[in-house]
Each structure stands twice: as structure tokens, then as C-alpha cells.
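Hi everyone,

Forwarding the result from last night's run.
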Amino acid sequence: MARGLAVITAFDADHPRQTLSEVARATGLTRATARRFLHTLVELGYVDTAGTSFWLTPRVLDLGYSYLSSMPLSELAQPHLEKLSARLDESSSVAVLDGSDIVYVGRVQVRRIMNIGITIGTRFPAFATSMGRVLLAALPDDELDAYLAETDMRAITPHGLTDEAALRAELAVISARGWSLVDQELEPGLRSLAAPVRDRDGRVVAALNVSTHAARYSLEQLHDDLVPVILDAARALSADLGTVNR
């Protein structure tokens, strides 16, 4: 199974079509093994082929849908994101922590504000994002220590944090005040605010955010005008999630 999943994940936006040799090289498998898995995936309908090229089929989306349909968070989040985006005229998202990354499980896009398109399943390094920091701030000490030990804190922009002590200090602030601001650390000109989403037991299980161009709001305006709205949306989603989990 691990090798079959490695073959599937070898295909991405930069490599949507690959030859057998390219798949073998990307996965570290022998050509014979890669060929066997590719042919099995073709038979199952997850991969298609013509000539020497292979590519994923839309059936692969079923794998992600199985996850999304099994968790009420994604379905519950959508009306809250739509309401939030309509109120602020900004894009909004919900994400969960998966290893060292956040993964988007809900998204309403009002305008394109990043060079990288964000869709359900998009991943970003947790330490460099507002939602990631909200989720990291809620981790037990031992889990946070393990995360930091395994994470390469390489700055994505000149504004990014690269020092573990500085990140720990920022996470302590986030934990105390209940929200996170990332100012142009993921992409120049992008500011993002996030708040925690909690389950019925008060555990942080996701984060909700709004992203905006830096030129649209001053830092003071973000604090005074947007933070209360985002906190309200996160509390409303948490309340719905708690009701479903009863």
C-alpha cells in the first residue's frame, strides 16, 4: 500500500504526466516494481495511460472525498466561511494539522491573492502560516518539541521567522490571546488572521482564517475590525461542531 500511494503522490502540478522511468525515479522504486503498480492503478481506474505516458484520473478524488465525508468539520465549515467571506469581502479557509503541514479542508475564495492557487488539500508549512501557528500553539509541549525537532524553519519570504525561540515566543502569545497574525511571511503582500476551532471538549481541532492584501488594511485595522469578526466565526463553527459531536 505504501508503495502504491507513493506512485499516486509522485504526480503533482509540476509533473501531471510521467513516463515509467520518471515515476520509478520519483518514488525510488525499480522500473519493474513501478510498472506493476502503475498497471494495477490503471486497472483500478486511478491512473490512465497512452503510449509511454501515465497520469491520474479524477477517480483519485474519491480518496480525498472519503476523508472529507467522514469528518463533519468540512461540511459544517462551508456556510460559516461563506458568511465570513461575504461580510469581509475576503477569502476564508479552514485547515487541520497533518504532520509538519496544514492541510486545507474548507475554502471560499473571493479574489486571487496568492501566486499559488489554494484548493482543498493544499498544504503549507505550519510554522509559516496563521492557521498553522494557531494549531501549533495548542499542541502539548512534547508534541511541539517533536514538531520543532523535525522541522526545517527555512524562511519562505524575507519577513519569515527562522528562529525556534522566536517561534515559541510567538506561539505563547497566540495561545494567550486566542488568535494569530502572519504578516507577509508566506508570500509578500499577504496578511492572514486565524482563530482556533474547538470540539465539544474544548480541544483545538482546526483553524479558521481570513487572508487579505497588506495594502487593504493597516495592522491596527486588522486588529480592530477583522479580529472580532474572525473570532465570532470560529466560535460559531466550534459551537456547531460541538453539537454534531454530542
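The longest helix spans residues 219-244.

Cheers,
N.
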